[in-house]
## 1
Amino acid sequence: MGMYDVFETDTNLETAGIIVDYGDFRVRIASAGQGNKSYVRYAEKKLKPVRKAMDVGALSNERSQALMADIYAETVILGWEVLKDDEWVSGIENSKGEIVDFTKESVVSALRDLPRLFLDIQEQAMLLSNFRKADLEEEGKNSQSS
């Protein structure tokens, strides 16, 4: 496998996103990398004021998580659906079990309430294989031969 097979991504997919299925809910995420220009620009804008604090390790974990939740809600998390009565419905389940509208605020709230979910979303958004062109082409070949 050559370097292009390993590192070339589908730039369309990096911005249009992939669906991460968690069973009773699913999240459409874009790449949290260089292929997602919105992410790069917005992260730079949000992190610039705290860059010095980050460089010297003075940025609190709480502040860092709040900034990242805002960045992801704005530029990486493109959609959120909940399975309700065997149909996918746009929205997010809140801590009371109610389905609320998919908004930046509801996403930030879910990410802050569920740090392990946020960590998984971050890992999926940065996972090269989710957006790698060679994997997608191979997946397409496999589905055509079935």
## 2
Amino acid sequence: MSSEVLAGDPIPTPAQGSPAPGNPHGVIDCAAYSGGKRVATLGLDGLRSALGVPGQFVWLGLNEPTEELMQAVQRELALHDLAIEDAHTAHQRPKLEQYQDSLFVVLRTVQGAADGAELEFGETHIFVGHDYLVTVRHGSLRSHTGLRARLEGRPALLAKGPGFVLYALMDFIVDQYFPVVEALEESFELLEDQIFTETCSRDTTKSIYRLKRDLVALKRAVMPLVEVCNRLMKFDLEMVPSDTHPYFRDIHDHVLRLNEMIDSLRELLGTALEANSSLISEQHTVQTKRLAAWAAIIAVPTMVAGVYGMNFEQMPELHWELGYPVVVGFMVAACVGLYAGFRRSGWL
């Protein structure tokens, strides 16, 4: 499991320094920013003293925090009990909740599994206040190292405060969905080739269902973000300044595009599943026809041999000199005739 949070470990530079020593396990980085620049690296015991400074905010990054660590952060920032409980237990759907003077945002992160079997989901919980932002990461997803450093390289935008950092985090997470959806589209194209090259089988059907399951999971993670973005674009949230609303509109457009891609792929998968089932049924019908045709061909010599295999004394044909060749010739002619007829009809 990676030890970085969504905010990412900072890339050490002389101006940035290293995380403050003595922080408990689970604290990745904690820094104060003023005017878009990092002015101090803090420990948990220095959070409260850094708050309330005009033009300054604190960004704290946590990874798989313990209950004691979350309680310590709650005491320093006066976070709501329900939000702390959700952030600690995880397993939340994407949402945005407002608690007095703070926001609580839940986002789902995703990446394709290394073996291509199933998607791996994680969670990032974000607390946003007037002068602080806390990220809590759950799940063993890819490292997000570098995001904090990239933001620190854009002081004009970072100076917008916690609202802009929230946008950057959401944008970073939403952008991770596009390669996953594109990979699913490529998998669907391979399934199409299997279906329409007459190589479809039960394994093809299993692959379609697995792909549909992944799309349903993606839909559950992406769809609630539409409402989250709509809420963040409104003017009634003091923690989100009006000059960041255009940035959230950009995320909103990306989320709508993701939803359209997922819905289109789900419709195509439904059609592919029907086509696959139809082709499998057709293959079964063809095999049944072939078996019936061969059974009919074999039935003729079986019937004739059965008749002459009966132990009746009065069978005139038994004493014909040409009886044997006539009977064998009849059986061969009948079988050849049936074979030719079934061949013309497409049964063989």
